[in-house]
Specification:
Blueprint lengths: L17 H32 L16 H29 L7 E8 L2 E5 L5 E3 L1 E5 L3 E8 L4 E5 L4 E5 L5 E6 L4 E7 L12 E6 L1 H9 L4 H4 L10 H11 L2 H4 L18 E3 L5 E3 L2 H9 L22 H13 L4 H5 L1 H10 L1
Parallel strand pairs: 1-5, 4-10
Antiparallel strand pairs: 1-2, 2-3, 5-8, 6-7, 6-9, 9-10, 11-12
Helix pairs in contact: 1-2, 5-8
The chain binds dinuclear copper ion.
Length: 340
């Protein structure tokens, strides 16, 4: 099916999902126009055809018509189910970032977008991305609800305080595109805008290399361009997290090596995957879930860490590989099996 339908009045199509979103939208418009015209025509046609021709004329009483009722229920049902399946397919694609997507972190606040790249680049109201590469955005807000909206990519996602939301896109064309806040967020909501700059891969790599890039220079709060996990390690130390979370499991808290992406078991027997959401909760509400074998004694760091610092700590934890001790366990086992 060729989905390359050009819809007038719509923004440029610059992401992999744009054509399919527009195709559905175009279909909905056509469907609406068709039924508007059909119903308007029938209203006029019937009012002429069945008009009263004599002053004492009365209508024939109607006692129901099963066939007619099946038709006028069945056809709309088929149409809306068709729209549902089509829409759900697009929704599923647009809400499932590919596994190989590059991650970029976004923090919204009144009234700006603060962006961090894992490599360390920080930008405000500007987002540099490579073309033809899936990009996953992990987003949160420092104050109230905002909405991250790139019309040319057909990407729009609420950015909510106290919660991580994700969106993803793959740009298909280089160029500069608008970035909006699409949720009213106060006096300067309309100024909470920016641009997305899509670059060729080599160009983007060069931009990442160039630590003194003009956009990073504008960053507030340090503006350091060290990789996020390095910045995270510093935040981790500065807040003395390492007193309890030591490299081996001898600390008061569990070791964080190999934690990211693993399944954690809690004291109540439940389990969860150690993802960004879990790690953020463990920092803000440490005792919401307690790892099996430990006691709930960690203090909350709510209000002590900025959302950007929490993103950095997550990047740091993500960078901690599983310790050697687990790997060396294999050798004695192998020895015993050969003895047997
Ligand atoms: Cu932020 Cu509107």
């Amino acid at each position: 099916m060729n989905l390359n339908i050009k819809v007038p009045f719509s923004p440029e199509q610059a992401s992999t999902i744009a054509t399919s979103v527009d195709a559905l939208y175009f279909f909905l418009i056509c469907l609406t126009v068709f039924f508007t015209l059909l119903i308007s025509f029938l209203v006029i046609f019937f009012s002429i055809k069945y008009r009263r021709t004599a002053s004492n004329q009365t209508g024939v009483p109607i006692h129901g018509n099963l066939l007619l009722e099946i038709i006028w229920s069945g056809i709309p049902l088929a149409i809306v189910m068709f729209i549902f399946v089509w829409g759900a397919r697009i929704y599923y694609i647009s809400s499932t970032p590919p596994a190989n997507a590059e991650e970029i972190f976004v923090v919204g606040k009144q009234w700006m977008w603060k962006i961090q790249h894992p490599e360390g680049h920080r930008e405000i109201n500007t987002l540099h991305v490579p073309v033809n590469k899936p990009i996953r955005l992990t987003m949160t807000s420092e104050d109230i609800i905002h909405s991250f909206f790139i019309p040319a990519f057909r990407v729009k996602m609420d950015v909510v305080p106290g919660r991580y939301t994700t969106a993803w896109f793959e740009a298909t064309k280089t160029g500069t595109y608008h970035l909006f806040c699409a949720e009213y967020c106060g006096t300067k909501h309309s100024e909470m805008i920016g641009k997305v700059i899509v670059m060729q891969e080599e160009e983007y790599a060069a931009w990442l290399e160039n630590n003194s890039g003009t956009d990073t220079g504008k960053s507030t709060g340090g503006g350091s361009s060290e990789p996020m996990h390095v910045a995270g390690a510093k935040v981790f130390k500065a807040n003395r997290c390492n007193t309890c979370h030591q490299e081996e499991s001898q600390g008061l808290g569990p070791s964080l090596h190999g934690l990211y992406g693993s399944t954690v078991e809690f004291t109540d027997g439940k389990t969860a995957e150690a993802d960004d959401v879990y790690i953020r909760e463990s920092i803000i509400k440490p005792n919401a879930k307690t790892k099996a074998g430990y006691s709930p004694m960690m203090p909350t760091y709510q209000g002590q860490l900025s959302e950007e610092q929490i993103f950095q700590i997550i990047a740091y934890i993500k960078s901690l590989e599983a310790k050697e001790e687990e790997k060396t366990d294999v050798t004695p086992l192998e020895v015993t099996t050969t003895i047997e």
